[in-house]
What does this fold into?
Amino acid sequence: MSSKIVSVEEAILKIKDNSTVAIGSSGGGFLEPALLLKSLGERYKKTAEPKNLTLLHSTGIGDNKDGGLCHLALKGLVKRDIGGHWGMAPKMVELALNNDIEAYNLPQGVLSQLFREIAANRPGLITKVGLRTFIDPRIEGGKLNSVTTEDIVNLIELNGEEFLFYPVIKIDAALIRGTTADLDGNITLEKEGTFLENLSIAQAAHNSSGIVIAQVERIAQRGALNPQNVKIPGILVDYIVVDKKQQQTCITHYNPGYSGEIKVPVESLKPMPLNHRKIIARRATEELKKNCVINLGVGMADGVALVAAEEGIENQFTFVVEQGLIGGVPAPGVEFGASLNPIAIIDAPYQFDFFDGGGVDVAFLGAAEIDRHGNVNVSKFGSHIAGCGGFINISQNAKKVVFCCTFTTGGLKTKIENGKLNIIQEGKIKKFVKDVEQITFSGEYARQINNQEILYITERAVFRLNLTGLKLIEIAPGVDIENDILNLMDFEVEIASNIRKMNSKIFNEGLMNLEID
It folds into this structure.
């Protein structure tokens, strides 16, 4: 049997015009086949080939700068991009905003699970995920611009209930990554911080009569790999490309705490300074319960993990991350999607099965806009397309959802002293608006269909979603309810008769000595 190892130039030549290319990766460089992406972009710049590709990826791929999908953000190279998240690749976002490509945003979990449907030659995925959000064809159908007209999401009814149907998409080529491959193409992921859906992608491409190109760091002899460690069997892999400079993430060459090789000291996580971001995280942390399963979103909500670690309570519950991580402490910032010291790493489609079935007890998520109906927008605002990522799967199915954000944005300055919050400079942009620009979370669906418990936590106020809308239940010490809260909202809210002050420990230096029930 001949070796499957080829040069990157040889591998990229296998991708033809009008191909649908599935890419396995997560934002921040996790599992990113960076050499393959860069070489594909360079080939197009030199030869104007291949043309009119359709990209298919469940997560955002990039580093918020020039990496990831930015290598492919070239007019003519890409015709259509169907992605679970967009914000990590600003150049691809620019193509979408300028109507240079057809652009779709679908839930990360839907795309992750859809690869399994493609692999099994089933007609598509039937799920309630996306109902009453911008994914719903009655609203936007996941379309991001005016040149995107084809419907790829359908509303159906089964046994008197509404569902969304996502048809399968045949794959011509798959670009994936691993750590080690043997000469037959069997691949292990021992240095990776996540497995994502790379097995499902490889199966889907293979069963679509497509090709699978895998980038790895190193090569082993035939038969040298422990079969229990092989995550992608060689029967699915057509070509192997070696990148000896492959990094674990875009900013870290290798952290053994992400891969589970060793347990790193949690004390290596720096405590957050006492600012409004920490105030929000501390108040959110009070919603934790012992032995609960907890999900954290990217952004403001990821501070919950840092506060929990600082308080020494991170072992009293279990964090789960949509990329397939169970246990440990979720990584913040650009490396979101991994966890330090995970107890298990599973394939992402199975993680989303667990999420969609209600396995998450409490989800802490960010919010860019909140409206009078309790709707939340995190996916598209002004000239920025972030995308929904796993937000819809999680927010629609968790038993309890806690949205975390500042009350205003765009220049907000605060000072915490003497146990009180002082607003030094108000943000220019209101977050509590009459109607959100895009519905990523439906307050109506949460109230009427799911009967979820929903909280909105800011540095100065806490709201609860009830049957009529938002209800103000807590305020921070030091703020004026009229001037600092109500006058900065574009809609009226109900005020609790027994409105409380937020815990004073939140606004003081040192540990809160937090105890959870």
